[in-house]
Amino acid sequence: MNKLISDEYFRSTSGDLFDYSIIKNINGQGTLHGDSTRPVNWALSVDITGNKYLIIETEMVSDFGGFYVNYMSDKKYRLEGRSSDDQWTIKCDDIDISSTAFSLVDNQTTFICSFEQIFLQKHFEAIKSVRAYISNFHFLGLESTNYGGSFLRDKFTIHIQNRQLEFKLLESSTVVKNLIKSGRIPSAIMSSLSVEINNDESIEDINNLLTNISFFLSTLTLNHNFCHVIEYESNDEVVMIEIANKMVSKYHGNILIDNLRISSGIKLIFEKSFMKYVELKEELDLVRFTHLIVELYQQRFIELKLATLIIAYEQLLTKYLLYSGVDIEKLENIQQKLGAINKLMRFIPKVLQDGELRDGVRNPLFHTGSIPFKTNEEIRSIYFEYQDLLMRIYLRIINYGGSYISRIDHNTSKPV
Questions:
Q1: Cα–Cα distance between 187 and 204 in angstroms, integer?
Q2: Do 316 and 393 touch, CB atoms closer than 8 A?
Q3: Which tens digit of pLDDT belongs to each residue from 185-212?
Q4: 330-365 burial, b for 16+ CB within 10 Å, e for fewer?
Q5: Which of 207, 223, 291, 366 is most buried, taking the most CB atoms under 10 A from its CB?
Q6: 3-state class (DSSP) for residue 381
Q7: What are the residues facing 301 on neighbouring strands?
Q8: Same structural domain for residues 247 and 135?
Q9: pTM, full prediction
């Protein structure tokens, strides 16, 4: 079993998209641990959409460690090994076998695997910086990169607590975004984030920072902007690669704040509000709130959008009122909570504080599964009005007072 898994294996799956892969093919040999151990060949690839592929090949087996009979069970397997170029060690402790293929000609069993996290590592002393590859984030660059005498505005930098962050579009980002527009792929990794690391920070600290950045950014783009591949650098050399099985959602361009319609908007809100977001993230369960507002753009049917919107309202308003010391036991419904929020913020139009959201939408939708006596146009108008209001409330909670892109027409910028 000396033959390694070649690029052609992954190219046959991805076609011409293989050329845009974040990791095309790192392969090698190692040991797979189940109820027993077995020597294997392995190969790893991450395509441009964020999908991860771990392929493991071994000599023909009928029931090694329950693979043949129980490969769809909850049993986890462990892989250890080295890459074929002897540069990397690989370690993964949580492998699931998704499917199995057998070849009598090659006397070989192939396992198609999934995992939560894989580390590829060289010897190193200290991490100096990281570069993370982010899904579904495309932007107007504010600064230029020199490509052999040709300058391209493809990046912007942010300064937070004496730390510099740099967002940069991948060279393939324009082509890849056009692939999304054409319907060939639903989502893509289109940019990277580079972060300077302080001497006293651990890898866990770095991961927490990247997680906070990812979720905060997701509330601005209303896409899931997660770090699927992270490169750790020491002395300008990549010495460790972390590949994580992050959520992938369909990309859309209806973002809340950008660098185009709001001049340097993403840069400004990061520098103004990111630390406030981090401060409130656990207290207000902003991770769950982020998933809910992103889900609004994944749903096709207006009734499901409205149901998700109402859940997002209930969660954010309840958490923030508790945080603000308001006695919510006296607030029996969503309209009363909106009124209590307005006492704190004093900006919600009176027409949006009446009983329309509760009596006209929430109650019939949750009790009957439909919204009678309203036209589709009226329902959509209510949805956009209250979605717009929800995002304004959120932006005020994180102390942002600038402009945002209206949820009513998804185009006009206006003050929060």
A1: 28
A2: yes
A3: 999 999 999 999 988 889 899 999 999 9
A4: ebeebbebbebbbeeeeebeeebbeeebbebbbeeb
A5: 223
A6: helix
A7: none
A8: yes
A9: 0.93
